[in-house]
Amino acid sequence: MNIFSTISDTVKTLDQYRNEGKAIGFVPTMGALHDGHLDLMRRAKKENDVLVVSIFVNPIQFNNPDDLKKYPRDLEKDKKSLEEINCDLLFSPEVNEMYPETVDYKYDFGKLENVMEGAFRPGHFNGVAIVVKKLFDIIGPDKAYFGEKDYQQLAIIKKLVEMENIPVQIVTCPTVREKDGLAMSSRNERLTAEERAIAPFIFQALNDAKSHINEMVPEEIKFRLQNQFADQPHFELEYFEIADDRELQPVINWNKAPGIRGFMAVQLGNVRLIDNIRII
Ligand code: PAF
């Protein structure tokens, strides 16, 4: 596996692959790799000639400095996992390499960025879009792979690709879950044993919401779920939203079905977790 921290080395090697007519599959990450990441990578490896992974904890997408400081990092362990799945190239730059100057570009994603994660994490998606655009410019992938766990991020990236005419195919992959239903996330590492034991309640609550669509309207389901969380002392529900799966706008009835999802963000101890499932 080639491991590069500079843009020039990465571009040079990728140009060689391209000259040889090789298709490039790309999985951007912030490291602390888990099976959810590896699942995207295995698929990218299977569907392309070359697998490129980036590991970069992007400071400009964190609206909370403490979250950035505590974000799990273990580059040596990540490298071993990447070797095991035969990754061809790891791009792992320092902050100065990606941002030699202050970045102040402001994207406008319209309605998409004003709900849920966009509303609760101001500036987050702008930071994601800036880094993803930059990574796409450096890597020039044929296909890039993203998980549905970060469904709103995926919608933002699809919009970015459309707005900037980036010649890449975005491949959507289903959320990978632990056996007890908890969506895999690098942040799960930061849960205490007690918190980890109760964390599957998030997925259970989403499924409970889904099971009531025949007898309740979205508002009633939201009320039911909020009450369930009010009875859970360790969880703080940030939002639960029932929204269409394209514009991610809240729905008041089931008319937009099929294509409605339930989205949730909770604080569990010091860890913020998000999850979503298709409802109809
Ligand atoms: O989903 C992530 O890990 C990050 O938001 C991404 C897409 C790598 C951008 O930093």
Summarize the topology.
Blueprint: E1 2-4, H1 7-19, E2 24-29, H2 35-47, E3 50-55, H3 65-70, H4 75-84, E4 89-91, H5 95-98, H6 117-120, H7 124-139, E5 143-147, H8 151-163, E6 169-173, H9 193-198, H10 201-210, H11 218-230, E7 235-244, E8 260-268, E9 271-278
Parallel strand pairs: 1-4, 2-3, 2-5, 3-4, 5-6
Antiparallel strand pairs: 7-8, 8-9
Helix pairs in contact: 7-8, 10-11
The structure holds pantoate.
Helix-strand string: EHEHEHHEHHHEHEHHHEEE
Q: Tell me the name of the CATH class of the largest domain.
A: Alpha Beta
Cα-to-Cα separation, first versus last residue: 42 Å
Largest sheet: number of strands, sense, barrel closure: 6 strands, parallel
Structure in words:
The protein has 2 domains: 2-173, HUPs (Rossmann fold); 186-275, Pantoate--beta-alanine Ligase, Chain: A,domain 2, CATH 3.30.1300.10. The protein is built from 11 helices and 9 strands. It is 39% helix and 20% strand. The protein has a 6-stranded parallel beta sheet, with helices on both faces. The protein has a 3-stranded antiparallel beta sheet with strand order 7-8-9, with helices on one face. It has 280 residues and is of the alpha/beta class. The chain binds pantoate. Residues 28-30, 58, 61, 128, 131-132, 150, 153 line the site of pantoate.
